[in-house]
Design goal:
Layout lengths: L14 H12 L4 E4 L4 E4 L5 H11 L8 E4 L6 H4 L4 H8 L6 E6 L7 H4 L4 E6 L3 H10 L3 E5 L11 H8 L5 E2 L12 E4 L8
Parallel strand pairs: 1-7, 3-5, 4-8
Antiparallel strand pairs: 1-2, 2-6, 3-6, 4-5
Helix pairs in contact: 1-6
Amino acid sequence: MPGDINMAVFEPLTDGQLLRARQILQQGGVIAYPTEAVWGLGCDPWNQSAVERILALKNRPVEKGMILVASSVQQVRFLLDLLPEHLQRKAESHWPGPVTCLLPDINQQIPAWVRGAHSTIAVRVSDHPVVRALCIAADMPLVSTSCNPAGEEPARNIAQVSRYFENQLDWIVPGELGGNPKPSRIIDIVTGQQLR
């Protein structure tokens, strides 16, 4: 089910900003960006040092794993194609929108430093225009984890992002939150269990 994002309130990122995002992400940088409910930290999930930077910033153990966010179902098709058709349809029924699905990573296509101690990978296809634009610019799904040190509340504005991680990020992407009061629901598509 799509989220309640009013597209009219969002200033689209400029071509220059999108180019900057692409370059930073390709060079292993870490960015903060607005999502549906809270600010997120993101990077190239296949760049181990970038992911380790985020884990260190957050003081988050690698075993917990992190979410991948994508601009479209097509960006995560490589994971879906290995699943039975009914599970593919189940995941796709939640997207785009503020629902994260735990997908079996059958061939371990997602690195362990993102997957953590799990056999599944948490994936969301976002309907937030900034998130989608970033994933399109990077031409890949991105790591998406709440922008806060462990034990602190997730950042809900740029001032909080700066307070938490001043001078430790490569870029704070301009934009607004999507207006969802809570972070995305997390659903295990195999069991149907809602974990958050």
